[in-house]
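From the shared-data thread, chain only:
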Amino acid sequence: MLDQVRVLIEKAVRLRQPAATLADDEDLFAAGLDAHDVVRLMLALEDAFQIEFPERMLNRANFASIEAISLSIAEVFPSKLRPFRETPAERIVRAA
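Structure, as tokens:
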């Protein structure tokens, strides 16, 4: 799950450093995430996991770190932990 969230962060937003170099609990806002980025990231997460975050989940704390995002998805959508749609190119890169 953590790696899946990292991939989506890389696709959806531009941080000051690559998501792959961030610790799981590192503050994404300190790394450059802003309110507009949160919206783009939320939409990317909803699309990739085929979910819709309930309004109560749309807060800074749930998007503060890679770990927080993963825990939020696991808490509200436990059945969605595995289904992550990768492109064929991403599968090749991951397999290499």
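The domain at 2-95 is CATH 1.10.1200.10 (Non-ribosomal Peptide Synthetase Peptidyl Carrier Protein; Chain A).
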